[in-house]
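TL;DR need structure tokens for one chain.
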Amino acid sequence: MINVFIIGSKGIPAKYGGFETFVEYLTKRKVSENITYHVSCLGKNNDEFYYNNARCFNVKVPDVGSAKAVLYDLMSLQECIRYIKENNLTNSIVYILACRIGPFFAFYKKQLEKMGVKVFVNPDGHEWKRSKWNYWIKRYWKFSERLMVKHADLLVCDSRGIESYIQDEYRHYRPKTTFIAYGADVKESSLADDDPKLVDWYRQHQVKPFEYYLIVGRFVPENNYELMIREFMASNTKKDLVIISNFEQNAFYQQLLEKTKFDRDPRIKFVGTVYDQELLKKIREQAYGYLHGHEVGGTNPSLLEALASTKINLLLDVVFNKEVGADGALYFTKEQESLSQLINMADQYTQEQIELLGAKAKNRIISEYSWEKIVSDYEQLFLNS
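>> reply
TL;DR here they are.
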């Protein structure tokens, strides 16, 4: 029996982003009887519970501001060490999601090494490039990443682009890496076309099925909202641009409004967040097209979900997006008129062209990014390590 301790996500049941959804599916779709998962969860107490047949342990972390995530990982790691020692576990792997604890990593790694425990790290994306961080936090992220790459037994990259970056940037450490992608679900939404939830949502936002382009993602500058809104406004499309994002009380929203004056274009519709996953899936399925401007990070969950559900996907031409979309998407650059012309072109697609592109997009997910494949890849990795 192999015991796999997963730290770095906020825990399960998943209520948040990519890592949480990953841990949810990894435990829910588990096939092997020879793996036991132990999942760290950010909690209000230090209770232990079982979910998806995984042992989940809450870690109560004091509120120390922006350092809370670092402290959470350290406290989770300490708890893993305590549990392994107390239960005399001999066959264990600690899998750390993201590179937050680099300066402290060597200290704990020595302890784990003495106990015969391997440590795997998922380096995530280029966190040190994100605009929300100030200069010093970006410096910390980069430094932390370097130290975690240096000391990890294995780096599990969810993007070939990230794997290439790790191998190139840190080649003097000769890092051991492997690639296992993030996953997506290709099952259609359970909501019918006339479901009151869907009909009410369309009515509330004055949107019609297949008469809108869609953006879903964190409302941050590096996801290129300004570029996509400007280009959409410059296009000739009669369709709406529906933006599902947490824009409320966001200073970036006000900056964008002042720069682009998008409030003068009735096609641009910020609709807030949609937490109902079946409703969100249905909204994706009934979008005419999906716009994706992410350029920081590896395999992006919202892109996988779009390819699984939306037939026309217009992606920013960067290595991470091309790796995922391949021939199942259309690509735009940051040059003026690149996206607006692409939207004009997509508007003229015949039903046959739309269906063909949609089939290619979905096949990308089925062949390379299905949760069945991802879970199987991880189980093989853990069992053979």
